[in-house]
Design brief:
It is a single chain. 27% of the residues lie in helices and 25% in strands. With 264 residues, it is α+β, with helices and mostly antiparallel strands. The chain has one domain: q2cbj1_9rhob like domain (Jelly Rolls, Sandwich). The strands form four sheets. The protein has a seven-stranded antiparallel beta sheet. Helix 2 crosses helix 5. The radius of gyration is 18 Å and the shape is globular. The two termini are 31 Å apart.
Amino acid sequence: MLNNDLDLERHPLDGLDTPAGEALVARCRSDLARNGMFNLEGLIRPAALPRAVAGLRPVLDSAAFEHKRSHNIYFRKDIAGLAPDHPALRQVTTINHTICADQMPADTLVLQIYEWPAMAAFLAATMGKPRLHTMADPLARVNVMEYRAGEALNWHFDRSEFTTTLLLQAPEAGGVFEYRSDLRTESNPNYAGVAALIEGRDPQLKTQPLAAGTLNVFRGKNTAHRVTPIEGKIPRVIAVFSYYEQPDVMFTPEERTGFYGRAG
């Protein structure tokens, strides 16, 4: 039962029509508007976290896809109007180990939370959406990513309007979430500002400490973000949930191969 694993007294995701649920949604909406993100700290109870990771550990150790790539912040080879050596196109390196939803045990806590109708309803309410749907893609709907010593998620913008993650295990050191809200807009790509961020010259750079068990939702499309290199023997393990306003969303075989090393 999710009631045993989630702190629904503190975070009443299953009671959005109650005063406590309405207050939670209002707080999350306010945080999104002000900071570009909101957090539900301790959504997963501390006692449930080791079990959640242990259930995934055999797959992480034996069948995870090592995704190592050199990229720029846009994940594109070129940008119209920018010279190849423009600072905004500086190459960075990302390394992680990814498992997909079809590799996870059916009863794993991560899948139970993702498929729980109350989660999609809560996220839709906080984002002002009529409804959100789980993804139909058997690989992409839920991913769990492990970052080991020396590995990092480097500067990038997300393709989706919102990104939803659940931190399952925090590292000993490093693994700091850094972000710059509203670095660009639909009408202004702000290449000079992007270059300043990548070169370490942006005074509006922020850090967000995340404890294990925290649900984090942020506007990743126009918010540049990264996770600094992991230090120590304990890896960073995080789940990424994909919800869409349209039902039955699927990745193409080419997208699956690019992200996971296999088409199916």
